[in-house]
């Protein structure tokens, strides 16, 4: 039988989602705890592969098992066994062909920045002291929805078969006088894509890149022409839609 697990995590202490030989990851912690509780080796497939230091307010994964259990009880036991920075909201049985990664229709990320020193925001938001034109950054953000190939924002050396993505929403939102977040939704994301997009939009907002330059970066498909990758600590996977 196949089950979905819905959970959230603070990624600060982890080497990303995917199991790695020399580091603790979100996937390895889930598999460890599920295997202990269900008394069999459990393999978990996630909705995506967040990088080291990236957080998730809502993440989904699936696993297969013949074990008999109450989903609500397993949820409670998982939360008692998992580290403090990973929290399961629910476990539910799904159809055998439901796939955490390939059945997802859309994913939404938020990237947070603040423009004034704030000791309470520093762990989950990027402090920036540049004068930024958010109207211009939103104009550039809308352009993302006009394109499908985002090779310019893909980490060099990534083993992806295609750099095509369908971005349906990209916009900066103001939270307060000194706090903003960038929201982007797409059917899929490339490795490091959101942080590279944000870094390039910041170049536009600082007046160091024009709107036409931004278009040329996308059309050129070269990572070296885009802006720098922003720090991982301010990036959150906010939602996955099936």
Query: N-to-C SSE series?
Result: EHEEHEEEHEEHHE
Largest sheet: 9 strands, mixed
Ends: how far apart? 19 Å
Mean pLDDT: 96
Helix content: 10-25%
Q: Please report which band the strand proportion falls in: under 5%, 5-15%, 15-25%, 25-35%, 35-45% or over 45%.
A: 25-35%
- CA radius of gyration: 19 Å
Give the CA-based shape: globular
Note down, in words, how this protein is organized.
The protein is α+β, with helices and mostly antiparallel strands. 24% of the residues lie in helices and 26% in strands. The chain is built from five helices and nine strands. Strands 1, 2, 3, 4, 5, 6, 7, 8 and 9 form a nine-stranded mixed beta sheet that branches. α1 packs across α2 (71-81). The longest helix has 13 residues, at 26-38. It is globular.
Keywords:
242 residues; alpha+beta; 9-stranded mixed beta sheet; 9 strands
Question: How would you sum up this structure in a few lines?
Answer:
The protein contains 5 helices and 9 strands; from the N terminus they run βαββαβββαββααβ.
Write the layout of secondary structure elements.
Layout lengths: L1 E8 L16 H13 L6 E2 L8 E10 L6 H11 L4 E9 L11 E9 L11 E2 L6 H11 L22 E8 L4 E8 L6 H13 L5 H10 L14 E7 L1
Parallel strand pairs: 3-9, 5-6
Antiparallel strand pairs: 1-3, 1-4, 2-3, 5-8, 5-9, 7-8
Helix pairs in contact: 1-2, 3-4, 3-5
